[in-house]
Amino acid sequence: MDPKLLAELVCPQTKGPLVYNREKNELTSKKARLAYPIRDGIPIMLVDEARALSDDEAR
Questions:
Q1: How many structural domains are present in the chain?
Q2: What pTM was estimated for this model as a whole?
Q3: What is the mean pLDDT of the chain?
Q4: How is 1-59 classified by DSSP, letter by letter?
Q5: Which family is this protein grouped under (predicted)?
Q6: What's the domain range around 15?
């Protein structure tokens, strides 16, 4: 994930920061408790496409 792009992206629901999870290839929003997938190098920033974070992941 390009650090410059990551610095510009925010969670579409909360407008808060995102954290890149290299292992799962997704961007997570702790505040929204959502993980947005990255497909073919493109972040899919749609709430409907995001998965809910578990309690452990949200910490």
A1: 1
A2: 0.91
A3: 94
A4: --HHHHHH---TTT----EEETTTTEEEETTTTEEEEEETTEE---GGG-EEPPTTTT-
A5: Belongs to the UPF0434 family.
A6: 3-52
